[in-house]
């Protein structure tokens, strides 16, 4: 089979050196990558580096190999174009259809999905002109990944940092996996909230009541939503996974903290997906000091009290009309029967029901589930990558959002 053809555009920002890692991941995973840097980008990383890592000569000018008409052919033959980093200047040119170099010409001729990974100072990202350009590109179907928050050039810190190259690669992989469908970016203009991970309820300063969830399914949902053009807020409970590129990540520890973060983020959300494993109970009393083991004495019983039912709460009190709410049901027996009862009890629109256990689902890269709908539908998702389940969930959400 022919390798997927990817054009990696690199514009002139200090983060250009990070694109080398993205290029390596793309080539090592079986993609045929053509690097198209701008003249400014070559001040940061030279042609020799791009050529060595891609295995192809590097195209920089419309006048190179004119008989091959590169300003047209490169874009026409691509399965994906990804720009990393995308500077504010490049975003402006792309939004307004300017074509003064090979990369911007390529963007105009490409009929495949296009992913932009911006990197710039916070003030430049937040400027109304940049935000309007980003909105224009998203409206046209491009995926513009939200920048990360962190250290910028010099001593500055804020939003504008290029996301981790590994996470940009995951977005590209998801976009390519969806093929022509991804060009529609059916969640563009939508704000979605995803919870992930497992809450922990403290017993004393060193112990807690928790669960086995690692957050992999929730993170897969966040990545898939970014690849489909959504603005994503990820509420992460005690997960050690790297932040998905393009998602605004909020941290939570306990069920109460997760509830507060989800309710706040859901205020303007089109969809809320509760993939986190939220503790049903918490200790009634917190020991200020470590609970000691006493020789010859059994420990005092630990009394539990109920935690708030976040899924039922947001289902009953929708923050806005038409908001779609998705829950997860982790079951160990009578999986579908318990799932149907939970769907009726919680009042959500969709419920993802899966069987879990010590060595099943939690922490794994794969999952198998049935998505139950409040309208009586049942959508089985066969055993496979968690990203596949994530896309099925978003397919069903997008249909209901219209």
TrEMBL record:
UniProt cross-references to Pfam families, sorted A to Z: DFP, Flavoprotein
Chain positions covered by the region annotation Phosphopantothenoylcysteine decarboxylase: 1-191
Region (Phosphopantothenate--cysteine ligase): 192-402
Cofactor: FMN; Mg(2+)
InterPro entries (alphabetical): CoaB-like_sf (IPR035929), CoaBC (IPR005252), DNA/pantothenate-metab_flavo_C (IPR007085), Flavin_trans-like (IPR036551), Flavoprotein (IPR003382)
Keyword Ligase belongs to the record: yes
SUPFAM superfamilies per the UniProt record, alphabetical: CoaB-like (SSF102645), Homo-oligomeric flavin-containing Cys decarboxylases, HFCD (SSF52507)
Binding of CTP, residues: 280, 290, 308-311, 328, 342, 346
Positions of the Flavoprotein domain: 5-172
GO BP, one annotated term: pantothenate catabolic process
Gene Ontology CC entries for this record: phosphopantothenoylcysteine decarboxylase complex
Bound cofactor: record note: Binds 1 FMN per subunit.
Pathway noted in the entry: Cofactor biosynthesis; coenzyme A biosynthesis; CoA from (R)-pantothenate: step 2/5; Cofactor biosynthesis; coenzyme A biosynthesis; CoA from (R)-pantothenate: step 3/5
Catalytic activity entry: N-[(R)-4-phosphopantothenoyl]-L-cysteine + H(+) = (R)-4'-phosphopantetheine + CO2; (R)-4'-phosphopantothenate + L-cysteine + CTP = N-[(R)-4-phosphopantothenoyl]-L-cysteine + CMP + diphosphate + H(+)
E.C. numbers: 4.1.1.36, 6.3.2.5
Record keywords: Decarboxylase, Flavoprotein, FMN, Ligase, Lyase, Magnesium, Metal-binding, Multifunctional enzyme
GO molecular function, one term: phosphopantothenoylcysteine decarboxylase activity
Domain DNA/pantothenate metabolism flavoprotein C-terminal: 187-399
Functional note: Catalyzes two steps in the biosynthesis of coenzyme A. In the first step cysteine is conjugated to 4'-phosphopantothenate to form 4-phosphopantothenoylcysteine, in the latter compound is decarboxylated to form 4'-phosphopantotheine.
Annotated PANTHER family: HOMO-OLIGOMERIC FLAVIN CONTAINING CYS DECARBOXYLASE FAMILY (PTHR14359), PHOSPHOPANTOTHENOYLCYSTEINE DECARBOXYLASE (PTHR14359:SF6)
NCBIfam families with a match to the protein in the record: coaBC_dfp (TIGR00521)
Family the UniProt entry places it in: In the C-terminal section; belongs to the PPC synthetase family.
Name listed for the protein in its UniProt record: Coenzyme A biosynthesis bifunctional protein CoaBC
């Amino acid at each position: 089979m022919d390798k997927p053809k990817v054009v990696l555009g690199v514009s002139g920002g200090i983060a250009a050196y990070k694109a080398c890692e993205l290029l390596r991941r793309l080539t090592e995973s079986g993609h045929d990558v053509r690097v198209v840097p701008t003249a400014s980008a070559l001040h940061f990383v030279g042609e020799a580096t791009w050529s060595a890592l891609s295995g192809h000569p590097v195209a920089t000018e419309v006048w190179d190999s004119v008989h091959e008409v590169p300003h047209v052919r490169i874009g026409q033959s691509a399965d994906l174009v990804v720009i990393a980093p995308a500077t504010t200047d490049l975003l402006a040119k792309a939004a307004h259809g300017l074509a003064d170099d090979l990369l911007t010409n390529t963007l105009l001729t490409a009929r495949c999905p296009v992913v932009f990974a911006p990197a710039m100072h916070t003030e430049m990202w937040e400027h109304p002109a940049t935000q309007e350009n980003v909105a224009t590109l998203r409206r046209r179907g491009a995926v513009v990944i939200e920048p990360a928050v962190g250290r910028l050039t010099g001593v500055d810190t804020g939003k504008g940092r290029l996301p981790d190259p590994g996470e940009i690669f995951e977005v590209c992989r998801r976009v390519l996996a969806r093929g022509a469908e991804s060009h529609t970016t059916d969640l563009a203009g939508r704000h979605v909230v995803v919870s992930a991970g497992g809450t922990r309820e403290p017993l004393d300063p060193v112990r807690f009541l928790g669960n086995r969830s690692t957050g992999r399914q929730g993170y897969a949902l966040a990545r898939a939503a970014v690849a489909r053009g959504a603005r994503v807020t990820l509420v992460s409970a005690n997960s050690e996974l790297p932040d998905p590129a393009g998602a605004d990540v909020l941290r939570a520890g306990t069920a109460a903290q997760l509830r507060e973060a989800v309710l706040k983020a859901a205020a303007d959300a089109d969809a809320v997906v509760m993939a986190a494993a939220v503790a049903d109970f918490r200790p009634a009393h917190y020991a200020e000091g470590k609970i000691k083991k006493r020789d010859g004495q059994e420990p005092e019983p630990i009394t539990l009290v109920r935690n708030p039912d976040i899924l039922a709460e947001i289902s009953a009190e929708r923050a806005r009309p038409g908001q779609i709410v998705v829950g997860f049901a982790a079951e160990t027996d009578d999986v579908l029967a318990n799932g149907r009862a939970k769907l009726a009890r919680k009042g959500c629109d969709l419920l993802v029901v899966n069987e879990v256990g010590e060595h099943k689902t939690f922490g794994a890269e794969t999952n198998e589930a049935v998505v139950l709908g409040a309208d009586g539908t049942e959508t089985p998702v066969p055993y496979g990558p968690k990203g596949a389940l994530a896309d099925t969930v978003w397919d069903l959400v997008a249909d209901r959002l219209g």
